[in-house]
Amino acid sequence: MTGRIAFQGEPGAYSHDACREARPDMEALPCATFEEVIAAVRDGAADQAMLPVENSTYGRVADIHRLLPESGLHILDEAFVRVRICLLGLPGAKLSDITDVRAHLVLLPQSAQFLRLHGIKGHAAADSAGAAAELAHHRTPGEGVLASELAAEIYGLDVLARDIEDHGHNTTRFVIMGREIDLTRRGMDGMMTTFVFQVRNIPAALYKAMGGFATNGVNMTKLESYMVDGSFTATQFYADIEGHPDDAPVRRALEELDYFTNHLDILGVYPADPRRHAS
């Protein structure tokens, strides 16, 4: 596969790492914000978008659930990427030299035990890969960064310690999005369908809407709610289910759901990542 895949962050960000793992033949295009990632695909500057939706340690990624339905794009694939946090330092530095590290706010608590053990103070940065670039430029003695091994490779830094995260299961789920939905594929590890909906303003509408999935034996792996346009009365739901809309049980469940909703929009039908079912 050729073309470009857009991601949010500086070169060497974990989203960049995800692009290299899931789309090794595509050119990775860094963007400053998630909105710019989406716009790059919508406007033709990139062919696909790599967007993180949730992490096994710190939960869902802020704003993504709001952006996906408004993006005009469709989910083509999902990718489960293991987050391996490295301590990076200037060339020739030793672990014992490091007194302070900079990293994205979410990485610091994930490496809290390691930092405490080595007496290192953590400082929040807007972007871990950006912090790596700044360290390479300013060359501040005694300073390190928490980032990916890819960032060390890009910015010429040394990896002083690997896999320093507190939890070995630390994994981020990404969705890969494109301009056209593809309903023809079938995955070796099953299929996933992602959609958003708003329930009708009737008593027990959500309970009744969910009943169709239970009675038809369709497994719902995610259901999250969020406000629409800042209103406390307009709630939209984001859902992932196992299966394809052409499967009879899924078709019946979606038909029942449609009866209790004002709005139902399928965001993607795509093969399940094999790591989804890993123990």
Automatic annotation (TrEMBL):
Residues 4-179 form the Prephenate dehydratase domain. GO terms for molecular function: prephenate dehydratase activity. One of its GO terms (cellular component) is cytoplasm. GO terms for biological process: L-phenylalanine biosynthetic process. SUPFAM superfamilies: ACT-like (SSF55021), Periplasmic binding protein-like II (SSF53850). It holds the Pfam family PDT. PROSITE patterns: ACT, PREPHENATE_DEHYDR_1, PREPHENATE_DEHYDR_3. InterPro entries: ACT-like_dom_sf, ACT_dom, Preph_deHydtase, Preph_deHydtase_CS. Residues 194-271 form the ACT domain. Its EC number is 4.2.1.51. NCBIfam families: PRK11899.1. Pathway: Amino-acid biosynthesis; L-phenylalanine biosynthesis; phenylpyruvate from prephenate: step 1/1. It catalyses: prephenate + H(+) = 3-phenylpyruvate + CO2 + H2O. This is prephenate dehydratase. It comes from the Bacteria. The keyword Cell wall biogenesis/degradation does not apply. Keywords: Amino-acid biosynthesis, Aromatic amino acid biosynthesis, Lyase, Phenylalanine biosynthesis. It is an enzyme of class 4 (lyase).
